[in-house]
């Protein structure tokens, strides 16, 4: 699908719904994807503000990214919010990407609240979706994980998700969108980059229409997942005995009488995964088990559940 103001507007309105007339927050890095997103929103006269984070991880390049975003906002009279990472934000302990993502979304949601904005728009695209799918596939993810990046979730909208990286570059070239390339994207230090450089191109070479077919398959997966989630909620209500969000009891006999997939998914919602789920379903009466979110006690008739306090997790 060619990226134009018309095709983008259609995707945006589909996702935004009742939010469409309100003001949004655009997460802008200075790269091609987010600068194209900003250009599209500007041309369509959307009401929006801009947020940018300078992680100070790439020296002068980080400063140039910030300068580009600031210049775009000031030139077009757009309110903008720049967050410079400081020592108080700590350093990444394991994954730089997870650390950066947490900082980014904490900043975004803080601005949503303070500025009374409807939602965050991010520039994730179909190639990002493919990379996420392949990574999750390699980890044995279920249908929810294979559905990849949601187009809409928790006040985050991703209106470029059905467009490819090439389509975004084509738009940038056609409309003279100025952007910066993040040189770290060309490194193979991260798994996502290795998938991007080594795996995705081979799939596209063997299957020329791979991305368009993949996009349709993702939509089918997400439709199936939506149905499954409704069935899980229904099944949970049928085995629920009593309690509240913190402490509740489930009918063990009814749980074990459900389809194996449903019973496993119900236990998964209690913070258990993989082999832990099997242990819960086969546990003898009197057994106590802990997940990252819950403690459960097995009796002959029931599973007694208690949410673990955050400071004990």
From TrEMBL:
Compartments where located: Cytoplasm
Gene Ontology MF, one: tRNA(Ile)-lysidine synthase activity
UniProt-listed Enzyme Commission number(s): 6.3.4.19
Coiled coil: none
UniProt: ATP binding residues: 29-34
DNA repair recorded as keyword: no
GO annotation, biological process: tRNA modification
Any single Gene Ontology cellular-component annotation: cytoplasm
Transmembrane found in the keyword field: no
InterPro entries associated with the record: Rossmann-like_a/b/a_fold, TilS/TtcA_N, tRNA_Ile_lys_synt, tRNA_Ile_lys_synt_N
Function comment: Ligates lysine onto the cytidine present at position 34 of the AUA codon-specific tRNA(Ile) that contains the anticodon CAU, in an ATP-dependent manner. Cytidine is converted to lysidine, thus changing the amino acid specificity of the tRNA from methionine to isoleucine.
Family in the record: Belongs to the tRNA(Ile)-lysidine synthase family.
Domain notes: The N-terminal region contains the highly conserved SGGXDS motif, predicted to be a P-loop motif involved in ATP binding.
Name of the featured protein: tRNA(Ile)-lysidine synthase
Record organism: Cruoricaptor ignavus
Highest classification ranks of the organism: Bacteria, Pseudomonadati, Bacteroidota, Flavobacteriia, Flavobacteriales
